[in-house]
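Researcher: First entry.
Model:
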Amino acid sequence: DFEGLMVHVAADVLDDRTDDRPHYTLAVVIMQWQREVCDPHHFVRGPFAERYADVGYRKHFEGGPQRQFFFDFEPRYRFSDNFLLIFSSDISLRNNTFGWIDSNDTDIFFGQRDITSIENQISAGYNFDPYKAIDLSFRNFWSVADYSDDIFWTLNDDGTRTRVAYDITENDPNRNFNIWNLDLSFRWRFAPGSEAILLYRNRIFKQDEQSTLDYGESLSNLFNEPLQHTLSLRVTYFIDYNNIKDVFSRKNG
């Protein structure tokens, strides 16, 4: 067995087009924990499959420090030659970033925000034989953009920004976005190059301005929304042109 930890540190200096001061991206730190195993029940397929977790931090200076923290975790396990399970979780925290919120005939408005994102996924696949398989895919993504710092700018013609007062009562830029997807499919390769896929999908979606809610509260509100169901069947059949040509040749002969 092999376990490893990698730490990467980098610093960049970029030219700012709007003034003479450079802005900096300081300290990109990435820690990776990976494990190589010889156990046949562990599924290893190249470097991506060997990575279990990433932890990182980024600090960017341009009109004030902007910080980003992220954590990625993705264990996977092959129970047998037929059954594979993958779980992944991504967490990202971005503080003091800025982005577009509104515009009118004369001004373009930006605001300072904190963005928090969490994404959880589960993927599972079971192969009955080389021709038939069932796949399950679940994904939940939550993201909030919080402008409670009450810092806003207008964009100048030269690309710089000017601090202004902005009333959010008419156009609230705060966002709380949450979505749930679940796909369950059965695949059958019934002939060379031909496949039938029966897919069931359900989906829940909610977006509002409640950016102060935490993940649990947002998820609770999400399940109050109506569930959307979809059932579809797709059949792909491969037609060999040479075989069809031979059939018509025999008929004409």
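Researcher: Second entry.
Model:
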Amino acid sequence: NWILRGQFIFWLLAYLASTWNAIQNYQEKAQTVSNAPGIFVTSITLYTVIFALFALITFVPKLGYRPRIFLMLGAYYFLSLALFSLSALSGDARIFLFAFVVLAAVFLDTPWNILSLAAALLAFAVMGWLNVSGILHIAAEFQYNATDPSAWISGWVVFTALSISISLGITLLLRSLRQSLEKADTALQNEQRAAASLRLLSNINQLIVREHDPNLLFEKTCQFIFEHGYESVWIALLQPDGVSLAPICAGGNPPPMPDCALQAIHARARISAPPHLAIPILRPSRDFGVLVIGAPASFTEPEILLFQELAADLAYALENIETENQRHVIAESAAPLLTARDETEFWSAALQSVRAVLRADRAAIYVYEYGADRLTCPYATGLSQEYIDEINRRFREVPGARLFRDPQPVPVDDTESNPLAAPLRPLLLREGIRSYCVFPLFSSQKLLGAFVSYRNAVIPFSQSDLESGQTLAHLVAAS
């Protein structure tokens, strides 16, 4: 727009000067030149049409970019042809044709700028041929070199060299400028996305400090991510079967959760499946779930690292929330244990505490009788009598036998692959037990027995689980 307005000022001055010059020439040559009226009318008409065309493309932007550019270039092109027809090499035709080449190189992309250059060279050659062959007849005062082939050839060669040089130079310069601007724009967008991601991480970290409800934590996290310009977001938790995922919350209006979510949690690694990025939410000893983000553009490496940090923060927050919940459950379990009126009520309360604190599907209390050197299971829930009898009979072969040497919890995270479970593996798998942990019960430095927390899915016992189980074991033994 500014280029067109700047040109319009010069075109206005040129129009006024050309009109005045045409009037002066007509007055001077009206008596001597036979076709003076025709030249005058043609000149005034040409100047007026060109000026009106420039006024149109300058002050009517609704025409659009390309129509205005082609009209402007067309005005220069046909004006140069008209001037070639009126004055051959004696007028300003070459200047306007050269301006056409320069402006085409500035405003048009390849191949249009090359086609414009070819059209200018062709126009110069054709107008030379028309003048040399005598097809065009011009006024006598403009006939200097008009029919001289060598003048047209040398003029065409010089014009070609200048036009090609200026066209290539402008094209390369603009291409370099465009690449620089694109790189700068890309860098700016990356910086803006990185800054937005850092703000997102800061907001969610503040949320983690304040929020102790996992569902609200997930819901607000999805909301924050969606509001930062991402198309979709899911948070899904691993189910007790250790295989499937259950979406807890989603941001925006996302489609069904992509397959990369399951791949990420099973591989315990990020999975990029454009336009989605899946990052597992996990701790060294526990898989919680997965965070999936959808974006309109590909994820940059800083974004990926930031979302990995976000997933790690969520896992840490979940672990802390679970630990706090376990402590709360242990505190609530103390009263029933301490106020139990008989042994049956006591052990029933103990089993309920084991299942609540350790998220156990089944639980059992085993008592060791020193005099008889035997193991009994007076209280259990969810276990078959066949399994209990077999454990009592082979108690020296089970992983829990290590308690006689080292009174520390004995976790078996996967009964199908853990070597500790090898002697009892068929029995355990037949019973449907996939993970369990044995916690010793001590009183006055004497092993009283143990309680066992069983899980039907492969869910490893975290450090928090082991610490909470030991605390519960001390509470049960003291009670």
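Model: Note on the second entry: The first strand starts at residue 232 and ends at 238.
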